[in-house]
Amino acid sequence: MRPHIRAALERSAELTRSNRLVEAVRIGEAAINRATDEEQPEIQQWLSDHVNDFVGREDLP
Predict the structure, then answer these.
(1) CA 18, CA 50: separation in Å to the nearest integer?
(2) Do residues 8 and 27 make contact, with C-beta atoms less than 8 angstroms apart?
(3) What is the pTM of this model?
(4) Buried b vs exposed e over 9-23: b needs ≥16 C-beta within 10 Å?
(5) In this predicted structure, what is the pLDDT of residue 55?
(6) Could you give the CA distance from residue 6 to residue 21 in angstroms, rounded to a whole number?
(7) What is the 3-state secondary structure (H, E, C) of the chain?
(8) What is the mean pLDDT of residues 32-39?
(9) Closest Cα to residue 45, out of 16, 7, 6, 17?
(10) Considering all CA atoms of the chain, what is the largest pairwise distance in Å, rounded to the nearest integer?
C-alpha cells in the first residue's frame, strides 16, 4: 500500500476516535477510492488489523 493511502487511513482512525465521523469517512473513503485493485486486499487486511485504532479499545479481537 502506498504511504499516502496508509496515512489517510491512519488519519481516518484518529478522527473517528475524536468523534469527527463525517471527516473520518470522507478521508477514508477518498483513500480507498484512490487505491489500485492490487492495494484493495492490503487495505482490507489493514482495516481488520487496526479495528482498535478506530474504536480506541484494546479488548477487541
Answers:
(1) 16
(2) yes
(3) 0.84
(4) bbebbebbeeeeeee
(5) 81
(6) 18
(7) CCHHHHHHHHHHHHHHHCCCHHHHHHHHHHHHHHCCCCCHHHHHHHHHHCHHHHHCCCCCC
(8) 96
(9) 6
(10) 32
